[in-house]
Design goal:
The protein is mostly helical and 398 residues long. It is built from 15 helices and no strands.
């Protein structure tokens, strides 16, 4: 049998160091976010009177502030522990979506939403990546990454189509109310989880200086291009579908269908990522991800979008699992400096996102008639940058 799910091994991994509650919390979190993440850019687009530059600036400010403050996230994580850090981040995510819900009440909820989600990102991602890098298995890290992605994606299989259905029948206020309730539920398992602590001793100046060192340029390119391609998928793709007048229900169904096939594929890819074929898999996945973005440029109907997005998800999975395996592998070999390495990655990714989104906002402000799907060619080129992740023997922290 080519595809062996081996659930016994999977749950044996999840039971290490009492992480079961942690991953249950992450699954509930992803269920909540999966209902709204596809439709969030469209909500902002409508709120800002269909001004694409305003939407891009909104996200640019979030990622720019997060990139600037990423070392602070590492220090907070070291101070309060990874579990507490993630628990507080979920409360901040809750506050963020509450602010989105209240946008029509007052404009002041817009800057407040930016502040709280930046704090939420600061507390969540350094803690999450550090936790997984510490406790994934060295011998089967690729498989663990594949399974982690599957567990993250499984709750999101039903949530996009559910979110689209709620939007069509009841609108955004009801959708946000549902997201808020599920996010609150995600906090409960963490209240009973054991705490773990990391030692983060890097200085703010040191973290920033290291991010742009010459010997780290290949790793930085890999991190930046991966982060930017995700932004195109998360922001520009939903807005493009909206411009084609594709219904919310169809958008949700499209996302759910693509997640189903990619989740199954990830388990198989995870096994290959633990072999010497990992660099080859990464390169092929990156190439096909780029091709899928070019195909997306030419779609004109809902059916076209279904097929193109399914191809993209499969291709992205082939690249993402080995890419993340290389990332966690590099982080784990840093031992005590794993969290510094992870914070370094957050700086690079989010500063790149800030620059990219601000430039895109400027271009679409100067040339408002430009088709939004033109950015897909940029995403195709960015996808090729994933290949740099498999070519770096080490990352200098000195």
């Amino acid at each position: 049998m080519i595809l062996s799910l081996n659930p016994h091994h999977y749950f044996e991994y999840l039971l290490k160091r009492d992480v079961t509650k942690f991953y249950i919390a992450m699954s509930i979190r992803n269920l909540a976010l999966g209902m709204v993440v596809l439709f969030e850019p469209i909500y902002l687009y409508l709120y800002f009177d269909k001004s694409l530059p305003s939407v891009l600036i909104f996200f640019a400010l979030i990622y720019g502030a997060y990139g600037l403050l990423a070392p602070l996230g590492g220090r907070i994580m070291a101070k309060i522990g990874t579990t507490t850090s993630i628990l507080v981040s979920l409360l901040l995510y809750f506050t963020y979506f509450l602010c989105l819900f209240l946008f029509p009440v007052s404009f002041w909820f817009v800057p407040l939403s930016i502040i709280v989600i930046v704090l939420g990102l600061l507390l969540f991602w350094p803690a999450f990546h550090t936790d997984f890098a510490r406790f994934s298995s060295k011998q089967s890290r690729g498989g663990d990454v594949g399974k982690l992605n599957v567990m993250r994606l499984l709750p999101m299989i039903v949530s996009p189509i559910l979110g689209g259905w709620v939007l069509v029948l009841f609108g955004y206020p009801t959708l946000f109310a549902m997201v808020l309730m599920v996010l609150l539920a995600s906090i409960v398992p963490l209240l009973y989880s054991k705490e773990t602590h990391e030692v983060y001793s890097d200085s703010y100046k040191g973290a920033w200086k290291r991010a742009w060192k010459k010997e780290n340029i290949a790793t930085s390119i890999a991190f930046a291009t991966n982060g930017l391609e995700i932004i195109v998928a998360a922001v520009f793709w939903p807005l493009f579908l909206f411009s084609l007048a594709i219904s919310f229900e169809s958008m949700g169904a499209m996302a759910s269908f693509a997640l189903i096939i990619s989740s199954l594929f990830m388990l198989y890819i995870g096994k290959i990522a633990d072999t010497k074929e990992r660099p080859w898999l990464l390169n092929i996945g990156a190439l096909w991800t780029g091709i899928s973005w070019i195909i997306k440029y030419f779609i004109a109907t809902t059916f076209d979008a279904f097929l193109a997005h399914a191809l993209y998800r499969l291709s992205r999975s082939a690249a993402a699992v080995p890419f993340q395996t290389f990332f966690y592998e590099k982080a784990s070999v840093k031992d005590a400096e794993a969290d510094e390495f992870i914070v370094n990655r957050e700086i690079i990714v989010n500063v790149a996102r800030f620059v990219f989104l601000m430039l895109a906002a400027l271009v679409f402000w100067l040339f408002p008639s430009l088709p939004i799907n033109g950015i897909f060619f940029g995403a195709a080129i960015l996808s090729l940058g994933f290949m740099f992740a498999g070519k770096i023997p080490k990352f200098s922290l000195k």
